[in-house]
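Input record, target 12 of the design panel.
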C-alpha cells in the first residue's frame, strides 16, 4: 500500500469492475447517437460566475458544494458541478445556435465535482452522461429526451426505476405561484434556515425530506393548480407523447430540482433499490438559462444521468451485463525464440481485431497457464521448442481442454474463424 489514499468521497475505477462503467456510459450514449445528438466536450473547470448565474446563487450546489480556486493569474474558477451551464456556454460561444440550426442537440460524458457529505451513491467526484436540446420550444424534444433516457436504462436491463414528472411553469405563472407558496410557508413552524429559504427559493422547501416539514406541507399550494394555459397545454402534450411512446410516468406535483434554471418540464428517474440516494438521473426544460448567462432567448431541455448510481442500480437488481471478453486468446511462449514468434502472432491477431494477451517475464508453463485462466480467454496459444521445430503452435480450448496443432502461418486465420 502507498502512503496515499483516494481523497474522501472519491473512489477508483479498477478492472474488472471498471468495464461495467464503460458499458453503462456507452449504453446511455447509444440512443443519443442514434437520435441526432453530437458529442460535446467542455473543460473540467469554468468561471465561478458561470455556475453562480447559471445554476443559481442560492442553490446548495453554488453556496456549499463547489470546488473553487483562484489561479495564479487571479481568475476565479470552479470544478464543474454539473454539465448544462458549460454546454450552453460552449454552444453560445461557438455560435452553434445560428438561425436554421435549431435545435442544437448535444451529448456529453464526464466527471463532475461537488463537495457533498459522502455516503453510498453520493460522491465528491462522480460521472454523468448528459444531453441537451438547445434553442427550440417543442414538447416533442422534452418527450424525446425522456424516452431516450428510459430506453438507455431498459437497454441495460434495468426494470426497477420510475419516472417522476412535473411542470414548474414559466415566467408568467411561476411568480404568481411562488407568491402563493410563500404566503403558505410563512404560516408554518419552520427553523431559521428553512425560513430564509422561503424568501430565496420557496420551491426548494417542498423538496425538504424531513418528516416534520413534510407533515406541514400537506395543504401547500401546488404548481400544477397554477399553471398558465400555455404551460398546461405544453405539459399535457409531453404527457401524451410519453404515453404514446410506452413510457410510464408518475405525476409528482412536489418534484422540484436542486438547480434554479428549470422551467416547465421537470423530471427525475428514481430507483427503489438504492436507499437515500435514489435519483439515478434527472433533468428538465430551462428556457431562461441562456439569457441568464448573457445569451439570446434559447428555450432548451436536457438531462444528466448518473453513471455511478446506474451501476449501483444494476447491482441492486442483480443485472450482469454481457460484456465483450477483455481477452479472447492468451499466448504462452516457452523460451526466447517462441516469445519472439508469439509476439509477432499476437501483434497480428490484435491488428485483426482479436483481443489477445501474452505471458510476460519468462513465466513457466504452470504460472503462464494460471494467467491464461485468470484472463478469461477462450483459447491459449502455446509455443515451445518442439512446436517451433515442427512449424506449428498448439491452440488449446480452455473450457474443453481440447488442443490442436496449427501451422504457424495458419494461426491468425484459424483463430479468427474459431472466434467468429
Ligand atoms: P443533478 O444534476 O443533481 O440532477 O444530477 C443528475 C444525476 O447525477 C443524479 O440523478 C445522480 O444520478 C447523479 N449525481 C448527482 N450528484 C451526485 C453525487 N454527488 N454522487 C453521485 N452521483 C450524483
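The sequence produced for target 12 reads:
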Amino acid at each position: 500500500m502507498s502512503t496515499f489514499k483516494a481523497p474522501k468521497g472519491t473512489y477508483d475505477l479498477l478492472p474488472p469492475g471498471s468495464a461495467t462503467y464503460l458499458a453503462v456510459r456507452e449504453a446511455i450514449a447509444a440512443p443519443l447517437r442514434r437520435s441526432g445528438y453530437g458529442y460535446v466536450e467542455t473543460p473540467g473547470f469554468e468561471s465561478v460566475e458561470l455556475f453562480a448565474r447559471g445554476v443559481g446563487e442560492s442553490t446548495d450546489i453554488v453556496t456549499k458544494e463547489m470546488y473553487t480556486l483562484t489561479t495564479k493569474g487571479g481568475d476565479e474558477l470552479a470544478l464543474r458541478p454539473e454539465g448544462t451551464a458549460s454546454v450552453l456556454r460552449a454552444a453560445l460561444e461557438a455560435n452553434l445556435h445560428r438561425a436554421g440550426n435549431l435545435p442544437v442537440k448535444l451529448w456529453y460524458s464526464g466527471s463532475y465535482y461537488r463537495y457533498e457529505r459522502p455516503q453510498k451513491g453520493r460522491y465528491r467526484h462522480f460521472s454523468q452522461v448528459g444531453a441537451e436540446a438547445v434553442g427550440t420550444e417543442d414538447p416533442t424534444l422534452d418527450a424525446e429526451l425522456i424516452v431516450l433516457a428510459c430506453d438507455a436504462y431498459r437497454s441495460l436491463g434495468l426494470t426497477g426505476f420510475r419516472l417522476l414528472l412535473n411542470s414548474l411553469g414559466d415566467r408568467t405563472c411561476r411568480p404568481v405561484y411562488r407568491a402563493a407558496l410563500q404566503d403558505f410557508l410563512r404560516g408554518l413552524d419552520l427553523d431559521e434556515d428553512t425560513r430564509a429559504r422561503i424568501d430565496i427559493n420557496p420551491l426548494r422547501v417542498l423538496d425538504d425530506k424531513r418528516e416534520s416539514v413534510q407533515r406541514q406541507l400537506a395543504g401547500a399550494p401546488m404548481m400544477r393548480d397554477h399553471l398558465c394555459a400555455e404551460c398546461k397545454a405544453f405539459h399535457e402534450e409531453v404527457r401524451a407523447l410519453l404515453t404514446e411512446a410506452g413510457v410510464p410516468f408518475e405525476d409528482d406535483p412536489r418534484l422540484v430540482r436542486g438547480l434554479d434554471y428549470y422551467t416547465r418540464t421537470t423530471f427525475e428517474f428514481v430507483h427503489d433499490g438504492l436507499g437515500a440516494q435514489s435519483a439515478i438521473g434527472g433533468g428538465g426544460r430551462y428556457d431562461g438559462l441562456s439569457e441568464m448567462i448573457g445569451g439570446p432567448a434559447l428555450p432548451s431541455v436536457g438531462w444528466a444521468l448518473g453513471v455511478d448510481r446506474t451501476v449501483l442500480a444494476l447491482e441492486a437488481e442483480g443485472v450482469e451485463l454481457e460484456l465483450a471478453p477483455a481477452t479472447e486468446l492468451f499466448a504462452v511462449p516457452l523460451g526466447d525464440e517462441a516469445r519472439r514468434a508469439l509476439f509477432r502472432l499476437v501483434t497480428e491477431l490484435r491488428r485483426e481485431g482479436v483481443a489477445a494477451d501474452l505471458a510476460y517475464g519468462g513465466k513457466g508453463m504452470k504460472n503462464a497457464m494460471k494467467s491464461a485462466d485468470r484472463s478469461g480467454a477462450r483459447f491459449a496459444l502455446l509455443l515451445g521448442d518442439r512446436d517451433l521445430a515442427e512449424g506449428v503452435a498448439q491452440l488449446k480450448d480452455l473450457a474443453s481442454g481440447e488442443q490442436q496443432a496449427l501451422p504457424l502461418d495458419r494461426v491468425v486465420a484459424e483463430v479468427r474463424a474459431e472466434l467468429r
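The mean pLDDT is 95.
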